[in-house]
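Rotation project, supervised by the postdoc (A.L.). Task for the rotation student: set up a whole-complex structure prediction and record inputs and outputs verbatim in this book. Inputs entered:
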Amino acid sequence: MKSRNPPDRVIPLGLSLLPGMGHLALGKRSRGLPLLSFSLLLVLVLYGNWDAFLNAFETTAVDHWIAAVFLIVALAASVIYSVWDVHRLLGSPSEGRHGKSPFQLARRRFAANGLAVVALYVIGLLYLLALLAPLLAPYDPAAITDILATRYLPPSWAHLFGTDEFGRDLLSRALYGARVSLSVGLLAVLIAMSVGTTYGAVAAYFGGVVDNILMRIVDVVIAFPVFFLMLVLVGIFEANIVFLVLILGLTSWTGTARFIRGEMLSLKEREFTEAARSLGLPSWRIIVRHQIPNALSPVLVQAALMVGGMIGAEAALSFLGIGIRPPTPSWGNMVSGGQDALLVAWWVAFFPGALLALVVLSFNLLADGLRDALDPKALMQRFV
Amino acid sequence: MLLRVENLTSYFFLDEGPLKAVDGISFHMDEKETVGLVGESGCGKTIVALSLLNLIPSPGRVVGGRIIFDGEDLRQVTAERLRQIRGGGIGMVFQEPGAALNPVYTIGYQIAEVLRLHRGLSKHEADAEAVRLLGETGIPEPEKRARAYPFEFSGGMRQRAVIAIAISARPRLLIADEPTTALDPTVQKEMVKLLGYLQEQYKMAILLITHDLGVVAEMAARVMVMYTGKLVEVAPTHDLFRAPKHPYTQGLLNSIPRLGAGRKEPLRGIPGSVPDFLSLPSGCTFHPRCPLGDDSCKAAFPPIRDLSYLRQCACYKVDHG
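Outputs recorded:
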């Protein structure tokens, strides 16, 4: 039977060359729609910025080159994944696999939460735009031409977001600013989470004196006025992105460390840990394979919340002039630059401010959705 | 002889002072033998089991004695060797079948993990063997069930899965800590049958820890009765049930409610309750609850002495020889 390929099987496979269409033909909307919209967006970017794309390979600017390569790789990957996945689905048409993993159940609950899914889309879109900024930006974000003729132009087709006091295109600046703001948020949280998780796990594993010392250090770090620490450090060192990421990341891991420690201590007492020990599993395996996965879901929620907070913190620092310094654009310093002209040129502060609000809100909604989907009590329920 | 325990002593080091959870216990087990360890809740049965594998949680610790398993003293071996014996030589079934399984992995994965560790099977072989073991422990449609998660199993099935994990590395001694307590009576009966079958199949000895005398009567060849961290009576099961010697054993047997007993017949028990381990009565710790207890019992804990071949008892009031 398998050698004959019924025509209704071939069509989705052929369609899947256009990513997502094959899934849609099979009725898998939850996978088809993201794939389709993702690849369509990439194609649109490619089509609308063909010249910029071609130039990217000739200029010496590294980020143009990276953006162009990313575009190609992402497109190719989504086609390959789409064909492969549709092929796989055709191979096992019955979805009658018995166990639904807790992760799969969580994904279903998450998908049922419309607001969170929209938030995820928004976040994905913003990160994509930031990555492709060199191709998408209609103007050079730092170019100052004829100030008197171009300053404070209101939004128009030539300048969708208008121009600022130096006549720079605000859309281009907002796109480049997204690179700074979004990556600072993500990287700082990555640092905070990895430091916090490792620190908390080490404290819980060794216990006793080690635990005591490590946790007292956490108390000291928490008691530190982080904001003033930053003011002082920024005064001493020059603030660049790396520095900002390090400062934000290395001052905000304490909550995660405490949380993971508590979680691991309670997992240590759980009977499955005892059972794993009675079966002779090595300690590292018990910690890495059995305890950390059980402690991870609340950390994920906290991470999503923190990204929003970090982006806000970066904006606040930049707004105050101690974060990212102009002319490098970040949403924070763009808002700051627009505040003087708020009455005559509202758009200068409005667009970056709105983007900030949008991204922070999206991360909060995402965290909310994750929390509901990963609730350990809900995990135990069977999803029918 | 498979296991010989000499003078095993385990303390919990509390702020109030050391708590003697296991206080100088000696016993032995032969190959393929089933021995019951009974006593009221909180008398230290589980700590004996955990002591054998050095798994007592802090602040507890084995402080003395020898544990000779298959010719090796488990208190002297390296940590690496002990890890091999855990699971590989001595398997353990825990009381709460749900809690002993990791909620984030499939049942099949959890069995296969042990198989790969102890028997060095490849991933593929381990998966197949896991399915076979699940089938052997009486789980219907094992291929399908191996891919299910613990929360999709009923209590009885979880207990079967836990047993499958415990026997997966072919241990020669299986410690079953209250294997039937959390289950309803019909499932209990199946579990007793299952353990008997597996013992036959894999030639294991079973140390059966329970407060359910019915399960002991059905499974064990010999019974050890424990009170406040000490053994008070050891006897072949038949003899123990027919003629218990120690007043505590007599009390335990008397307190089993009988079906068909008249309505007016009161439920009997042992007066009082298990004393606080930190303020144990002097001498024989059972004397305040004992019908035979008097001033002569207050001096020192009676040594456990041979009554006859295979029979031992720790009581001043029981005739020896």
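Student's summary: Chain A touches chain B at residues 97-102, 207, 269-272, 274-282, 290, 293-294, 379-382 (CB under 8 Å).
Supervisor addendum: The longest helix of chain A spans residues 170-206.
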